[in-house]
Amino acid sequence: MSESVPMTEPKPAVIPFLGLRPAPSATRPRDERPGIAGFDPAALDGWLTERGLPAYRATQVLDAVWRGRQATFAGVLTLPAELRVPLDQAYRFDTATEREIRATDGGLTEKVLHRLSDGLLIESVLMHYPARPGARERHTLCISSQAGCAVGCPFCATGELGMERDLETAEIVDQVRHAARLLAAGGKRLTNVVFMGMGEPLLNLDRVLEAIAALNDPRRFGLGARHITISTSGVVPGIRRLTALGPQLTLAVSLHAARNPLRDVLVPLNRRWPVEEVVAAAREHAQVTGRRVTYEITMIEGINDTDADAAALADLLRDDHAHVNLIPMNQVAHTPWTGTALPAVERFAAHLLEARVQTTIRYNRGTEIGAACGQLAAEHAGQPTPAVVRRRRERIVAESAAALRGERSQEPVPAGVGER
Ligand code: SAH
Ligand code: SF4
Fold it and tell me: Which residues are near ligand 1 (CB < 6 Å)?
């Protein structure tokens, strides 16, 4: 790490999140200037040509946007002022208006809260993995694709926030550019991007694919698609679209339960695309692309961690080209649930391994700063009243009790997800 590299970013100190006021929904109109990072080189070429500017300026602008250390157009001194000023009038260099950073795990996890131009808050999490024997150093960024989420998984802080809006392409990639600048200041490079922050990426797939194209493009960010993972709660048409794209991206499916009654409650879009359809689409993805699919199980004490659940999962995935990650649930305020304790997780894993289903036990990074998806933004949305929390808990307990008796949910498919 070089100390002499100039820092152009606000100092990434560990600061309390006091500066940002709660923003459960947009508080002001959106800045209408598009984010420059959402544009492909052809659009930029067109903008320059219209103004009679030379083509080499496009490369300079792209370098400043994607490789530079600067956080504003004004700082990009490789560009003449005659270009910087009109660029700034037409485009936003960065779509976040404020950021706050919290570090934990001895600095190995950095949680970033980004305020967007309309006041909404989204999160990303930067995780540092030091080199160890047989594995190189990695720096992985977990990013958001939506502000809020329509799917409404009851154990998820984002789900409880509800859906605000889809992120623009630039709002997605600007999380990555920010992390890259932070890392560059320490002489490091971002190695992996995972769509596991706020939102359901396959319900904002056009923009997510544009963002991935920008991240892949050697003229822009230049990150290989193999280093990008998309996590989905099971949007079957979206999985099929990814399959058609070919073998590049890594697919993770948030399964959480192998039995429909329970999955209807834990992942409400299961009422639209039931577990067997989700696994069939994921299996086809693995067959067509040759890439192993990862299934995530967030383990909730006494709910989805029983021997019967392990047996159902083993039956579902036996002989598949798949890998299961077991992750104890992070505590979130509005649920009555706790994460499964280690002995029960190990027992579950043993059951799967016995059925020759590859399984790993993982831990959420940064639990003490609320690093599970959406937890920090939810904190900022203000605490629900005790009466609201009590009603939510009663509903969750009643729904999960019915599910554990094997009854399918009578609740509707969440709005914005599609009809049953
Ligand atoms: N919407 C997508 C991607 C974002 S969520 C999806 O659901 O896959 C990313 C992951 O965070 C999911 O696997 C989700 O199950 C997990 N997650 C959400 N809340 C959690 C919590 N309280 N504890 C542990 N994992 C959680
Ligand atoms: Fe949405 Fe994923 Fe959270 Fe479910 S777990 S509510 S799909 S962000």
Answer: 155-156, 196, 200, 231-233, 254, 296, 298, 327, 329-330, 332, 364, 372-373
